[in-house]
Amino acid sequence: MTRWEDLIGAERPRALCDRAVARGDVAHAYLFAGPEGVGKRAGALLLARALLCAAEGARPCGACAACRDVAGLRHEDLLVLHGAAGPLWHEPARLAEVGGLPADARDEVLEFLERLASWGVLGRPVPAAGERRRLWPLYLAAEGLLAREGGRVREEETVAGRLARLREAGKLGPTESRIARLVALPPLSVSLYRSGPRGLGIASFAPREGRSERSVREFLERRPARGARKVAVVDDAHCMTEEAQNSLLKTLEEPPPGAVLVLVTPNPAALLPTILSRVRRVPWRALSGAEILTLLEGVTDYPVEERALLAQFAGGSPGRALRENPAALRELRDAAIALLRVGVAGDLRGFLAAAPRLVGGRGAREEDRDRLLKALDFLLLYARDLAGRALIGEGAALANLDLAVEIERDAALLGARGASRLGRALLEARDRLLGFSDPRLVIEALVFSLFPREEPAAGAIAAVR
Predict the structure, then answer these.
(1) What is the pLDDT of residue 145?
(2) By Cβ atoms counted within 10 A, which residue in 51, 215, 281, 305 is the most buried?
(3) pLDDT digits (tens, 9 = 90+) for 373-420
(4) Cis peptide before 125 (omega within 30 of 0)
(5) Which helix (H) or strand (E) holds 261?
(6) DSSP 428-465
(7) pLDDT digits (tens, 9 = 90+) for 275-288
(8) Could you read off the pLDDT of 131-169 as tens digits, one per residue?
C-alpha cells in the first residue's frame, strides 16, 4: 500500500493535501500538475484515500476497509479515468500470493504473463525474464476491452469473454484464473478510455443515451455508497477534448455535495482557462538524479551501473525509469551513438548496416516512433557531454560516465561548434518525430545532415563570382 513517505520529492503536495484534510478545507476540484512520472496519480489516490477513510482522527489510517479498497482500486465511491494505453503497477510477490505460489516464484509468474499476452488478454510488453524490479508495469489488452467510437463490443470479444473460453478449453486452472483476473481485467474503480485522434472525448464525462460507459458527471452526481464523499480522478487530463472540458464546467461551477474531482496532467497549458480558474492547483516537481537513484535502490535489484543508466535516462521522472529495462536501454543507446558516429564520419555503407538496429521494424509503427524518441533523448545527453568536454575539458560533469574515453575522442573530433550543431539537429529531428513525420525518414535526414560537408574549391567560388 503506497504511502506519502514512499513518494520522493512530494513534500509540498503532501503538505497541501494533509492541511486541507485536517482543516476540513477540501476543495471541490484539484489540479495535480507536474512532470510525467513523478507520482501525481499516486498522490491523487492518497488524497482520495484520506477523503474516503472511515477512521476517526488522522487520515488516511491505512488499516480500515475503505483505505484497503482505495489502494486496491475497488471502492464504490472512487472513479479513476485511466488511459487504456497506460500501465497498472503490480507487485510480483502479490501476484505469486494470489496464485498460491511462493513469494520468490517470479519466473513462473513471468512465464504465465507471457502466455496471457500471447493469448491476447494482456498487453505488451510484459516484464522480461530475469526482471529485477519490485514493481511491474502491466498493460491491459485495450482492444479487447473497449468498443470503437460509436460502436459496441460483444461479450465474447472482451477480455472477460476470452478468459472464460480459455477456462472452458482447460488452458486456465483455478490458480491461473485468479492471477489472470487480477492483471487482465480493470479493477472496480477504474474506467478505461481509449484516447482517439481527437483526444479524450465527451462520452467519458457526460452521460449520453445508448452509451454504457460510466461518465464522471453521472458518477459524482450519485449519492455516496459508503460515507459522505465521492472522488473522481482523471489521469492525463490534458487529453480531454474542448468539448469534454466544457462538459465539466457545470460540475465545477455547481459541484454536487461531497464530490471531489482531481485532474492529473503533465501539461496544464492544454486545459481551458475556464477549467484552470476553477481548480486548486497542487504543483509537483521533477526529481534530481540522486533522488531517482535513491528510489531505484529501494524498488529494484539492478546493479549500480544499470541504476545509473536508468537515472540518466529518466530526465527527472522515476516513472519513466521504472518502466524501462536497462539492458534494452543500453543496447538502444549504444546503437544510437554508433549511428551518430557513422554520420559524423560520412560512412554511407556503415549507415546502411547500422540503421536497422536503431529504427527497428519498418519504421512506421508507433513503437518505432517511441523507440527513436528514446534514442534521440540519449543522443541529446551525449551531445551535451561532448559540448561540456569541448568547452570545459576534464572538469565537465558527464551524464555518460561509462563512455568517458569515447566522449574525449568524439569531442576532439567535433569541437564545441560541431557539438552545438549536433544538438540543434537532434532537437529538430525530435520535433519532426513529435509532429508525426515518418520515423525512418527522420532518422535518415538526421544522419545525412551530419555527414561531413565538403568545402567548395577556391576556383569554383571564383567562377561563381
Answers:
(1) 57
(2) 51
(3) 888 999 999 999 999 999 998 888 888 888 899 999 999 988 999 999
(4) yes
(5) strand 259-265
(6) HHHHHHHTT--HHHHHHHHHHHHSPPPPPPHHHHHHH-
(7) 999 999 999 999 99
(8) 778 888 888 876 555 554 445 555 556 788 888 888 888
Determine whether domain 325-450 maps to CATH 1.10.10.
no
What is the separation, in whole angstroms, between the first and last Cα of the chain?
75
pLDDT above 90 (res 58): no
The answer to whether the beta carbons of residues 144 and 157 sit under 8 Å apart is yes
Q: How far apart are CA 85 and CA 264, in angstroms?
A: 16
Residues of the chain with CATH 3.40.50.300: 4-283
C-alpha cell at 143: 482492444
Domain 4-283, CATH among 3.40.50.300, 3.30.70.890, 3.40.50.720, 3.40.50.1100? 3.40.50.300
Q: 40-52 and 11-23 helices cross at what angle (nearest 10)?
A: 20
Please name the residue ranges forming H helices in 6-64. Answer: 11-23, 40-52
Rounded distance, CA 39 to CA 286, Å?
10
At residue 212, does pLDDT exceed 60?
no
Q: Does residue 458 surpass a pLDDT of 70?
A: no
Classify residue 213 by its DSSP letter.
Answer: S
Q: What percent of the chain has pLDDT over 70?
A: 88
- With beta carbons less than 8 A apart as the criterion, state whether 441 and 449 touch: no
- Whether the CB-CB separation of 302 and 138 falls below 8 Å is answered with no
pLDDT at 388: 93
Instruction: Enter the pTM of the model.
Output: 0.83
**What is residue 21's three-state secondary structure?**
helix
Is residue 315 classed as helix, strand or coil in its secondary structure? coil
Distant-in-sequence, close-in-space partners of 442: CB < 8 Å, separation ≥ 6: 372, 429, 432, 433
